[in-house]
Amino acid sequence: MADGKDDPAVFTSTSLPSDPRLLATVTNAYLGTRVYRDILHVNGVYNGAVGDTHRADIPSPVNVRMTVPGADSLAETFTLNTRTGTFSHVLQSTDYTATHQIYAHHSLVHLMAFSITIQRSAHSTQPITVQLRTSFVPKSRDLDLNQGPDFQGAHYVYGKTLVPEVEGGPRPTVHMLWTPVPQDLTLRGEERERSWEFLTAVAESEEEVKRSYSKGLALIAVGSLHSSHAHAWTMLWRGCCIDLDGPLPLRQALYGCLYYLLSAIPPRGNLGFLFHGISPGGLSNGTQGEDYWGHIFWDQDTWMFPNILLFYPEAARAILEYRIRMLEGALHNAQEQGYKGAKFPWESAATGREVCPEEIYGAQEIHVTGDVLMAFEQYYCTTQDQKLFREDGGWELVGAVAQYWCSRMVWSEEEQCYHIKGVMPPDEYHYRVDNSVYTNAVAQRSLNFAADVARDFLIPVPEEWVDCAKKVKVPFDAEKKYHPEYDGYSPGEPVKQADVVLLGFPLMHPMSSEVRRNDLEMYEPVTEMDGPAMTWSMFAVGWLELKEVQRAQSQLNKCFSNITEPFKIWVENSDGSGAVNFLTGMGGFLQAVLFGYTGFRITKTSLRFNPAFPDDINKLKVTGVSYFGNKLKFTITKEEIRIKVTESPRDPPASPLEAVLEESGQQFPLCEG
């Protein structure tokens, strides 16, 4: 087993955290759990009406703990290997080693598995027994579970969720097969080594669950169930990696963030299931009363999506397809509030209707609709995938969002511009404010993007879109040269989280570097120190833009108080409260490196880069950057930048890639290899 001391991708400990919420997670795009937890969750399977809807708890057959009775002198280690997506527990004595491995199969997403391996050392001949402790009971408070006949040695239960999200809404059926777990396993005296494999298959049809279980058994028979999973992870890392020559804690944090985020994305190729997006705590969390009930927020589109897009545009597309399938719910939300077009919910689950338990957020935190569209825009600029828009529903969504923003604006005779009134900005300490600068700027960006797509597709652009985009108020204090958070904001008022600073990045709202600096200086001291984990990474990006590298680093260092040991699980707030396995914070942190240190910016015509990084980092390597169907590898040192094209599209684009130096205009053509 890899020794975790030097490998930044392997996290090893001799004990488990006392707070079970901080245990490592094993998930894929369809199934997820925390190790040693009695429940697992399935992508898109929710139970409960409207604000009560939450991820349905499914009893977990992989919640098994390996022990050896009466053996006190055992060395014990717990390891999360992010390179292979595997959690292992090892007990070691002078006579033998017992290893328990747990994983959610990355490419066969309907499977979770664990194995027990006992290996004796040369001199011993005694039988060796390990006990398997499990509290598994095939019951659920969210599903009406029935027992079916055994299948190929596996037990079988199936059942529907109890309560649909809305009257007449979907009530999915979950089918589960699992290998029965004995109380103990024994390596006989004449055996040197033996492994036992235990399989769990979960799907939404009997046919799929049986097909998946059989496939798992076939792989076990040839000894390659775990190796096929590890191989899928190897390929995943090969296509995407951020590594740097710098401090170990930073490298570990990067591997941890990437592991938890990559665990949540669909594997490459045909999915065979509908992907239902990524919630702030991922599939390992989201039971009732935990991690926002597993609902989908702007966290997905603004904080996680840009990282996924830069490496895996196919997975990014699956996230956008989820939003397209939720369009009907979004049209309903707008109509219910008396507006036209589509208003995406603050919290989304199975239908796209608003499922936030507190009405104020759904009614007022409307920037989420613009955040969703910004993800579509970034995708369009990076891939030029017109099919998503022309044939797969993207254009309908874009047009409906533009229509919503136009209907949400009111004309101010006095100021001769459009206002958006009565909103809650990203800074949730304030509500019912007028002209939140972030909300208005993101609305303007939505309208400009909608008009751009229309022009690309030779569709007439509604005059209203152009007019509203041009004349919407984006508050600016010309005297102090900064952006007030909303009409009537007084400098010094406390702010919950990153808000105005998001204008610079990711919005890239046009402003001088003087104004950018003023915004950072105005809001940095008044932003809640213990607020949500993604805040400081955005301040870091701002300071990196201005080449204030040390100031950036001091902001990024604040993030480390949200990273817990030993498995690098993030908590939403540094006091440990809020969501755990907080993918939103991880997404922000990755953006600080991926878009901050490198200076990557996705624009209409190019992928710009302008690196800046602190003194203790000598080299940064970003592998697998996707742009127009090419895969690029960037190697950046203080002296030079190297760009290598590692893959090119099968049908080359009309104009080949070239690197351009902005100051001199010098061009370097880029060809594969």
TrEMBL record:
<feature type="domain" description="Glycoside hydrolase family 65 C-terminal">
    <location>
        <begin position="601"/>
        <end position="647"/>
    </location>
</feature>
<protein>
    <recommendedName>
        <fullName>Protein-glucosylgalactosylhydroxylysine glucosidase</fullName>
        <ecNumber>3.2.1.107</ecNumber>
    </recommendedName>
</protein>
<dbReference type="InterPro" id="IPR012341">
    <property type="entry name" value="6hp_glycosidase-like_sf"/>
</dbReference>
<comment type="function">
    <text>Catalyzes the hydrolysis of glucose from the disaccharide unit linked to hydroxylysine residues of collagen and collagen-like proteins.</text>
</comment>
<dbReference type="GO" id="GO:0005829">
    <property type="term" value="C:cytosol"/>
</dbReference>
<dbReference type="InterPro" id="IPR005194">
    <property type="entry name" value="Glyco_hydro_65_C"/>
</dbReference>
<dbReference type="GO" id="GO:0005975">
    <property type="term" value="P:carbohydrate metabolic process"/>
</dbReference>
<dbReference type="InterPro" id="IPR008928">
    <property type="entry name" value="6-hairpin_glycosidase_sf"/>
</dbReference>
<dbReference type="Pfam" id="PF03633">
    <property type="entry name" value="Glyco_hydro_65C"/>
</dbReference>
<keyword id="KW-0378">Hydrolase</keyword>
<dbReference type="Pfam" id="PF03632">
    <property type="entry name" value="Glyco_hydro_65m"/>
</dbReference>
<dbReference type="GO" id="GO:0047402">
    <property type="term" value="F:protein-glucosylgalactosylhydroxylysine glucosidase activity"/>
</dbReference>
<keyword id="KW-0326">Glycosidase</keyword>
<feature type="domain" description="Glycoside hydrolase family 65 central catalytic">
    <location>
        <begin position="284"/>
        <end position="490"/>
    </location>
</feature>
<comment type="similarity">
    <text>Belongs to the glycosyl hydrolase 65 family.</text>
</comment>
<dbReference type="InterPro" id="IPR005195">
    <property type="entry name" value="Glyco_hydro_65_M"/>
</dbReference>
